[in-house]
Design a protein that fits this description.
The structure holds two protein chains of two kinds. By secondary structure, chain A is α/β, with parallel strands linked by helices. Chain A contains 21 helices and twelve strands. In chain A, helix 1 packs across helix 11. Chain A starts with about 25 loop residues before the first helix and ends with a helix. Chain B has 23 helices and twelve strands. The longest helix of chain B has about 50 residues. Classes of the chains: A alpha/beta, B alpha/beta.
């Protein structure tokens, strides 16, 4: 079992998500600021609904008036009056409902728009650590599937639900106005039963809907990952295995859903039955009262007639219920995301980093990615003077990338401090730090858009001339101009029309354009041929404007060109100095590596 | 009118559930029949039992009414559960079909459409379809209910029922017009939702670039633009809906007025009993909600149809690269690869390969060397048919790769991509990616050859260590070795290695090269080399320039004889020429330093 990926338990639902899907006060507190600005339209919509429902509620009274004063009193004139007024209230209802749907829709869509933007804004500003722990697909599911369950409810059912609820509330009020005794009797006969049933129901159905949201995230996450990596899937002929696995996760989602229907398949028919039960009780009670002469048959007839009309809205509400519950579960998930605090934020009184020399310091730093994990770095200290090119060398997993991530404050050290120009990074405004530093990772990730847009990514206001100059410097201008639309060629997803080397060159151009004072190259030239790599390195130095550069190098040719080399092993700096000096250390790790390299 | 075929096609997806559907319809009919009978009991009670104070009869009536209500509740429960199962079933099927189809579509298609767009169809579009399908059985209840109520009203008073009937063509016309306008709006909205999903997806995938440049705001601005467009489309739909849906409230209301005024006159003149009038009212009241609900369902159906069209659009896209009708399985004896006059150009112009001729005899290896952008990667992508040459042919053991089945072709090729993408699963499962039924021994053997075994054993959970999304917890060099093991495990006849050893540290590099050499023995190998050491691994080297092979020979020979070759693999740079090319003046740069540092 251990070796079969198919036999692996598929339950990868996030335990931290448990309990988040219940929509409660905490969720409302988180979402409230995003709803409040649009509340105006909600209020307008509700007021218009009050008008519409008021007009609708007049109907039974007008009909009673028509029957009592017109038909029974043989007065065609009063009958006509009743009919005309009824026509009037009908039109009022019609137009008020229209306007209310527009206003309510506007509220819903505006609220949704700001929730979308806020949630994404919040997500984008969470620290890198969060993204390294979460699956891409799950995060995407939050902002697509979860938000869209809300969208579905807002566009398909929000106003309908509210108006139905109001109609129901209005009807009950009218029943009390018609006859307090009958209304009270009806309420007494039904309310306790309904309350008990709905309490049981709520607990069960919320649990089920929570599971549905978790399962759909698993489905989508599997889908996202394998679609993005479809070239690997196809290369390894893995389609049939994925098909099988997709069917499994999908089936688990189906199962969760079917469970979510069970409570409502019992509850809503029960509610309707209780409604009829109320009618029955009223017939008996009313019959008894009528026999005693306490009530007229007409009043009773109108009352029960009216009571029956309250049953259908319940059916409609019950049909919207699934959509509603999904939306609430989705909303709760989003609130959970909004509630996650970013750990890497500006401290109180953080200063803007203005003119920067680019000297950096790692000061007695120990770092763990998470509590419980071993130290990634232990007591590391390096001073990097402005303008230096420092190469980090060492076996994979030694801690080179961790140093890089700390220097750009993707993480904060567990103890010790990281400085730039002598300022602790935690006392510096994050945005000003990012403006003056940049990191080029290995993958050369490109966004959809033109090549020009991709190069401009870090400095959207750069002119075309600046973009082209940077490319000339790196020697990629000719290659780009040979492409069908030159700099305006669309980069597509996976950027497969470009080779890995070309993508890395574009990623480098992107970083150079920003002209950072501190630049970190993390295996950023791995896919370049040796000549291009050397060209790029020289070009970078030429246009460095005295910037500090940290190169994570696997090729000692790169290290040899650096001012100094730091050899990292097991989370510690074990050797530090110029290439020539390190090579001379008898039995030193660097000397051994270099010997090895020369031998090849 | 393409909406009807789409709608009917959607309905055909319910076919596997037809027994459920029939049962649901049966239950729905049960509900529909039960609903209008309840007021009959009420009427009898009010007209008869209560005025006569006949409590025995009243008791019987109430008891019967509750009995009917109980049956109705049962049917309702059944309908609900089954309708739910049906709609979920169809949703799951559609998503699965979509997924399976998308997996089969060629890489070129995936470059054109973003993952976000595909995800969006699998979520928001399919959810909209489900929303409607949930109501299919319910709409039957409503339909029967409306018909029955009409029937009873016709029986009670033909002229009044006639007035009602007259409104139905108007309603039909209105609905038709609504659907016409609604379709493009929904399409637009769903499309924008897809764009939005794409921004989210690529931001999360590329989060390190976004954060590295502190460009969160730029991505948020992109998303806001899409959210704005979604909002605009959604508001169009809100407005249209607000015009359409209330009309369904208007109709029963008109009926009430007609009954009151016209029926009232009939009652005054004595041709209608007051009991009948009350009954008519009570039926009209019963029409209010069903009609209102019909309005809602029509809107759902419309949206579902548009969304189904979007799902079918993908399902109907044929894979750009697929088995030809008479494709045979690849019959590999020794795997000699031959490229003859292979050209490749993107549809919009740029030629990448301009006539490549190369033969790789069975069991030998060729290293491709050339400047970044010379066409090495493209040439490699042609062999497993990720892309197809615009001209020329590639054969394996004399069989054209376009004439054999894709599955048999790719089964013979092990590929190490330069981006070394791993999936979120254990390391063992990632190595066994192409052959999930591999034994523990096979997996370890592959890892040993790829020089990955040692570091894997040192990981906290060894081979069971989960590697996160895109293998985040592993370093680039470790990822690459897992990717090599993954290719080796396939035990392919053909090995394609793209830059396999470029970012491994020097100490491990030599060891891997040793492993690779043993993996390459007996396999036809094409390797993209960017270092002299890697090029030296191969039996022969093909040196490429601008989409052509300009020289072929052993590494030693080319290294000795070909200056351009040597320069490509050697890191020698003339700084002055770079400055000249870039149009930079050295003084200018110095000034720049002064400025920024000051």
């Amino acid at each position: 079992m251990r070796w079969s990926p198919l036999g692996r338990a598929l339950d990868d639902s996030d335990p931290r998500d448990e309990g988040e899907a219940k929509f409660g006060r905490r969720e409302l507190r988180v979402l409230w600021p995003h709803l409040r600005p649009h509340l105006r339209y909600a209020v307008i919509s509700v007021l218009l609904l009050v008008v519409a429902q008021g007009a609708a509620l007049a109907t039974p009274f007008l009909i009673r008036f028509g029957i009592d004063e017109g038909i029974l009193a043989d007065d065609p004139g009063k009958l006509t009056v009743a009919a005309i007024i009824l026509g009037g209230t009908t039109l009022v209802n019609f137009f008020a409902l229209r306007a209310s749907m527009s206003a309510g829709g506007r509220f819903g869509e505006q609220a949704l728009r700001s929730i979308r933007i806020k949630v994404f804004d919040h997500l984008a500003h969470l620290d890198l650590g969060f993204f390294e722990r979460e699956k891409v697909g799950r995060l995407v599911a939050r902002l697509t599937s979860d938000v869209e369950t809300i969208q579905l409810f807002v566009t398909e059912g929000l106003v309908a639900s509210v108006s139905t609820f109001m109609y129901l509330a209005g009807s009950i009020t009218v029943l009390f106005l018609m006859d307090v005794r009958l209304a009270a009797a009806g309420l007494l006969a039904t309310l306790p039963l309904l309350t008990a049933a709905s309490m049981v129901f709520r607990v069960r159905s919320e649990r089920a809907y929570r599971r549905v949201r978790d399962r759909i995230a698993s489905v989508l996450s599997f889908m996202q990952e394998t679609v993005r990596g479809v070239h690997v899937v196809q290369a390894f002929g893995r389609e049939h295995v994925n098909r099988h696995r997709f069917r499994q996760v999908n089936a688990e989602w189906v199962e969760a859903n079917v469970e979510s229907f069970r409570p409502s398949a019992v509850f809503f028919p029960l509610v309707e039955f209780v409604g009829v039960l109320g009618t029955g009780v009223l017939l008996l009670f009313g019959g008894w009262m009528a026999a005693r002469g306490d009530i007229s048959t007409g009043v009773m007839a109108a009352f029960i007639l009216y009571l029956n009309t309250t049953l259908d809205p319940i059916t409609q509400l019950s049909q919207l219920y699934d959509t509603f519950q999904q939306a609430m579960a989705g909303l709760a998930k989003l609130a959970g995301l909004l509630d996650k605090a970013a750990r890497i934020i500006d401290g109180p009184g953080a200063r803007e980093l203005s003119a920067v020399n680019g000297s950096a310091g790692v000061d007695d730093v120990t770092f763990r990615y998470r509590d419980g994990l071993p130290d990634a770095l232990a007591d590391v200290t390096i001073d990097i003077p402005a303008g230096e090119v420092l190469a980090l060398v060492g076996p994979t997993g030694a801690g080179k990338s961790s140093i890089a991530k700390l220097l750009l404050r993707f993480y904060d050290p567990t103890s010790g401090r990281i400085t730039i120009d002598g300022h602790d990074l935690r006392d510096v405004q994050l945005s000003s730090l990012r403006e003056r530093t940049s990191m080029v990772p290995q993958e050369g990730f490109l966004f959809r858009g033109t090549i020009r847009d991709n190069i401009r990514f870090g400095r959207p206001d750069a002119t075309d001339d600046e973009v082209e100059q940077v490319c000339r410097l790196l020697g990629i201008d000719e290659a780009i101009e040979r492409m069908p639309q030159g700099f305006d060629t669309e980069v597509r997803e996976r950027g497969a029309a470009l080779s890995g080397g070309e993508r890395q060159l574009i990623a480098l151009a992107r970083a150079v354009l920003v002209d950072p004072r501190l630049m970190i190259l993390d295996e950023a030239t791995s896919a370049l041929d040796a000549a291009t790599e050397a060209h790029v390195e020289s070009a970078l130095r030429l246009a460095s404007h005295g910037r500090t550069t940290i190169v994570i190098a696997h090729r000692l040719s790169t290290a040899a060109r650096a001012n100094r080399v730091a050899v990292v092993d097991h989370g510690k700096i074990i050797e530090l100095g110029a290439h020539d000096d390190l090579v001379g250390i008898e039995g030193g790790l660097y000397a051994k590596l270099y010997e090895h390299w020369l031998a090849n | 009118m393409r909406r009807w075929p789409t709608f009917l096609r959607l309905m055909r997806h319910c076919r596997p559930y037809r027994r459920k559907l029939i049962l649901a319809f049966f239950a729905a009919a049960g509900v529909a029949v039960a609903v209008p009978t309840i007021p009959l009991f009420v009427r009898d009670a009010i007209d008869g039992a209560i005025p006569r104070s006949d409590f025995r009869q009243l008791g019987i009536l109430v008891g019967a009414m509750l009995g009917v209500a109980l049956i109705k509740a049962f049917f309702h429960g059944v309908r609900r559960q089954i309708a739910g199962e049906l709609s979920i079933g169809v949703e799951a099927d559609l998503r699965e079909q979509l997924y399976n189809h998308v997996q089969a579509l060629d890489v070129g298609y995936h470059e054109r459409i973003s993952t976000g767009q595909i995800m969006s169809r699998a979520t928001s579009d399919i959810q909209a379809i489900r929303q409607y399908l949930m109501s299919v059985a319910w709409s039957l209840t409503l339909f029967i209910q409306i018909i029955v109520i009409f029937g009873v009203m016709f029986y009670l008073s033909p002229p009044i029922a006639g007035i009602f009937l007259a409104t139905s063509p108007v309603m039909a016309w209105y609905t038709y017009r609504f659907a016409d306008k609604f379709d493009p709006i929904v399409w637009e909205m769903q499309q924008r939702l897809g764009d939005l999903a794409s921004v989210v997806e690529e931001t999360v995938v590329g989060i390190r670039v976004v954060k590295g440049f502190g460009q969160e705001a730029q991505q948020v601005a992109k998303l806001s633009g899409d959210a704005e467009r979604v909002y605009d489309a959604a508001m169009e739909s809100v407005k249209l809906r607000a015009k359409f849906v209330p009309v369904f409230n208007l109709v029963p209301q008109m009926g009430l007025i007609a009954v009151l005024w016209y029926g009232g006159r009939l009652a005054i003149s004595g041709s209608l009993s007051s009991g009948t009038i009350i009954a008519l009212f009570s039926y009209l009241f019963m029409l209010i909600w069903p009609l209102r609900s019909v309005g809602m369902i029509v809107a759902w159906a419309q949206r579902a149809t548009t969304s189904a069209g979007r799902v079918f659009e993908i399902l109907d896209t044929p894979p750009g690269i697929a088995d030809h009708a008479d494709a045979k399985p690849l019959d590999v004896a020794a795997a000699t690869i031959a490229f003859s006059d292979v050209h490749f150009a993107y549809p919009d112009g740029g030629a990448v390969l301009a006539g490549v001729d190369l033969e790789v005899p069975a069991g030998t290896s060729v290293a491709l060397v050339g400047h970044t952008g010379c066409g090495k990667s493209t040439l490699m992508r042609i062999v497993p048919r990720f892309i197809e040459p615009s001209d020329g042919d590639v054969t394996i053991d004399g069989q054209s790769i376009s004439a054999v089945t894709l599955a048999s072709l790719r089964a013979q090729i092990g590929i190490v991509f330069e981006d070394t993408l791993l999936f979120s699963d254990t390391i063992a499962a990632n190595i066994a990616f192409g052959r999930p039924d591999s034994s523990e021994e096979e997996i370890v053997r592959a890892a040993v050859i790829a020089q990955a075994h040692e570091f894997i054993e040192e990981l906290p959970q060894g081979y069971d260590t989960p590697v996160g999304e895109h293998g985040y917890t592993l370093s680039g060099g470790q990822r690459q070795r897992v990717a090599i093991a993954r290719a080796i495990l396939m035990n392919p006849k053909i090995l394609i290695l793209d830059d396999a050893t470029s970012n491994v540290d020097a100490r491990v590099e030599a060891a891997i090269r040793k492993g690779l050499r043993s993996a390459m023995t007996g396999r036809t190998t094409i390797i993209v080399a960017r270092r002299p050491q890697t090029a030296a691994l191969a039996d022969r080297v093909a040196f490429m320039e601008a989409g052509r092979i300009v020289d072929v020979g052993t590494h030693t020979d080319l290294w000795r004889d070909n200056k351009a070759y040597r320069e490509t693999l050697l890191a020698t740079v003339d700084v002055d020429s770079i400055a000249e090319e870039a149009g930079l003046e050295v003084e200018h740069i110095e000034e720049g330093v002064e400025e920024t540092v000051h």
